[in-house]
Amino acid sequence: MTKAEFLNSYNSTRTTEEALSKSISAAVQHNTLYNDVKLGDRKPIRDFWSSSLLLLLDRFNQEKWNEYQYENEIIELKKLMNHEFRELINFRISHSQKSLSVFLNICGVLVLILFHLNAL
Question: pTM of the full predicted structure?
């Protein structure tokens, strides 16, 4: 899959909002997250999750994590989400890893494509 095909699949509008939405959707696709939470009550959870991913993206860009730091951030995101919404969700390592890796991937590919387009 080319970078453009990846973005067309995961972020066709090339927006941060779509990148966050697709990253979270990918993370919950095969793993149950919510504990009897009504559809309308899921927005605050997703909003907090999105904000957390944005903060991690900023930190990733500033600190240039190594593998150990990346794995630690996955664990910390899991702890944070379960602490914040302990009665509502069962946030697993798989939710944390998938959402963070897809989000960083989308943002990284987007930056590479925009850089390439600006260089033309």
Answer: 0.83
